[in-house]
């Protein structure tokens, strides 16, 4: 990052940290999902549930990683709609797994 | 409603956002992005709450537990979808130089969380157990 064109309000840094906080929240939820899935022992259904939760978590991490890389410039481009949709889709997927595991 | 359908179309054709208006100051876009992330965190917290109700209240009757968990999970899903919608609408309003959209969603979410909290208090006070 060049210090010359650097925003004095540290907006890119704040946004990067917001992504970090969000991935941490996502990690907690994914861990709860794994705990839930393994509650009844490690059968085939549990393995599938764990894999799907891990996939949702990895999808979120991937979006966040690309975005954090994008924050490395002095004037980052706006978030892409695909990134926003993927992050929301991973969140919704975790909720759907939770609902499915209730039954 | 028409406005909503238009917004929904923008979700899947993001390049159309860039076609209209002027690109706002990147700091405004980043602030919008952080608001989006804050809503996603709210959604994740609600979903985590749904998991927690199911995992840490095993002595509740199944119907009560499932009802509470489903309410929290549904709120989380709505919150995540609404985060994308609000982000798209704000981004578009900034490009067009319009006022930012107002929304009654925060009120509805607050009421829903309040109802779930009161239900939890009632359930705990009256020991609504499934034994």
From TrEMBL, chain A:
The keyword DNA repair does not apply. It is found in: Endomembrane system. Keywords: Membrane, Transmembrane, Transmembrane helix. Residues 7-69 form the DUF202 domain. The keyword Hydrolase does not apply. The chain crosses the membrane at residues 21-38, 44-63, 84-102. Its main location: membrane. InterPro entries: DUF202 (IPR003807). It comes from the Bacteria. It is a multi-pass membrane protein. One of its GO terms (cellular component) is endomembrane system. This is DUF202 domain-containing protein. The lineage of its organism: Bacteria, Bacillati, Actinomycetota, Actinomycetes, Kitasatosporales.
TrEMBL record, chain B:
The keyword Membrane applies. The chain crosses the membrane at residues 36-57, 63-84, 105-128. Coiled coil: none annotated. It comes from the Bacteria. InterPro entries: DUF202 (IPR003807), IM_YidH-like (IPR052053). Its main location: membrane. One of its GO terms (cellular component) is plasma membrane. It is a multi-pass membrane protein. Keywords: Cell membrane, Membrane, Transmembrane, Transmembrane helix. Pfam families: DUF202 (PF02656). It is found in: Cell membrane. Residues 27-93 form the DUF202 domain. This is Putative membrane protein.
């Amino acid at each position: 990052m060049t210090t010359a064109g650097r925003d004095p309000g540290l907006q890119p840094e704040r946004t990067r940290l917001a992504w970090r906080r969000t991935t941490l929240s996502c990690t907690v939820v994914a861990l709860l999902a794994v705990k839930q899935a393994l509650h009844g022992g490690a059968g085939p259904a549990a393995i599938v549930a764990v894999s799907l939760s891990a996939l949702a978590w990895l999808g979120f991490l991937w979006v966040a990683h690309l975005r954090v890389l994008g924050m490395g410039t002095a004037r980052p481009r706006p978030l892409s709609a695909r990134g926003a949709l993927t992050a929301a889709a991973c969140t919704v997927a975790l909720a759907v797994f939770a609902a499915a595991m209730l039954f | 409603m028409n406005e909503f359908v238009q917004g929904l179309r923008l979700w899947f054709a993001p390049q159309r956002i860039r076609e209209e208006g002027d690109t706002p100051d990147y700091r405004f876009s980043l602030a919008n992005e952080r608001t989006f992330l804050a809503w996603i965190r709210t959604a994740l917290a609600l979903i985590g709450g749904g998991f927690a109700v199911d995992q840490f209240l095993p002595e509740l009757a199944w119907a009560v537990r499932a009802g509470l968990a489903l309410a929290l999970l549904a709120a989380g899903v709505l919150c995540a979808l609404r985060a994308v919608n609000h982000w798209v609408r704000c981004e578009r309003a900034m490009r067009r130089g319009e006022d930012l959209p107002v929304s009654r969603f925060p009120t509805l979410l607050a009421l829903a969380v309040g109802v779930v909290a009161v239900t939890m208090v009632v359930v705990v006070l009256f020991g609504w157990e499934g034994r």
